[in-house]
Amino acid sequence: MGKKVGILTGGGDCPGLNAAIRSVVLTGVDLGWSFVGIENSFNGLFQRPISHRALTTAVVQPILFQGGTILGTTSRGNPFQYRDKPAEADAGNKLDLALEACKSLGLDALIVVGGDGTQTMASALMEKGFPVVGIPKTIDNDLMATELTIGFQTAVEIASESIERLRSTAESHRRIMAVEVMGRDSGYIALHSGIASGADAILIPEIPIDFDCIYEDIKEKMTAKLQSSYLLVVAEGASIDKGQQEHLETVTGSYKLGGISQKVAKHLHEKTQMDSRVTVLGHIQRGGGPNYADRILATQYGVKAIEMIEKGRYGQLASYQAGHMKEIAYEDVKNKRRPVALDNPLIQTAVRSGICLGKNLKIT
Q1: Catalytic site residue 140?
Q2: Looking at domain 154-285+342-352, which CATH architecture does it have?
Q3: CA pair distance 308, 321, nearest whole angstrom
């Protein structure tokens, strides 16, 4: 008898989620399996009635190129992120609701597509005894134990194209242009898009900002090299000196990372008297359909997830390493993030190609 498998997407949306859903269903249908899509991440399992829909070949066949996720998602559905006892008790109750829902739907296994927070929830459900496998996604590319996550390559492409467009307007007005990109506490998007777009400086969370270093770089490039503009790519989690990150209040009264590019532009304007402007790319990096690289990666992850269920390899996350799909235990992933290592080859690539990283680094 064929298996019945659930799939959900959690955390922030990104290009490639639908491609992963499609791959899972098309691969499993060939085995005689059936699929249930859980709507709005784990919230769909917490709700009564359970929020779900059937996923068939006809439903998923057209969604390879489609952005977002047909199942919906949320980055606010993690009941395990709170620390006070009432919330912990509530988290336990919700976990029981999720387990009950999976059994009520007759699921044999659950595939969870998400980042560190979502996979932590998946791990907790696995510890309750329900079979779970994970697929990694986040535009930040900061999930442990995998080299590439779904959404990252498209986000870099979007950011790179946007930065290229800003160069021409910066040159026309002889401006300093600071472009703020996403990435949370890691600098992968900034580093990759900055190199791809020929940025003058790339500021990432892993390297505290030294304004004297940037100022000297501006002087050299604007005088000796006769540039008419200076373009910085700034990761939202970058920080000055002591590592204190900037946060902005949202319309709902909560706070999120952001605002560092304003501080950078203001400081450089005061130091150089050049007109300095800021562009925050924000959620445009998440929007639209996946590029070819993310479509391929998401398809690989979907096939791997089905293979893991076939072999009973539960409690693990599919992992992309050196061009191959592997498996990593949840214990090695949950509640962990992967920063850009200072020995990352792209750090040396940036330095040797004349890009300022906000600090004088040795060339090896």
Answers
A1: yes
A2: 3-Layer(aba) Sandwich (3.40)
A3: 16
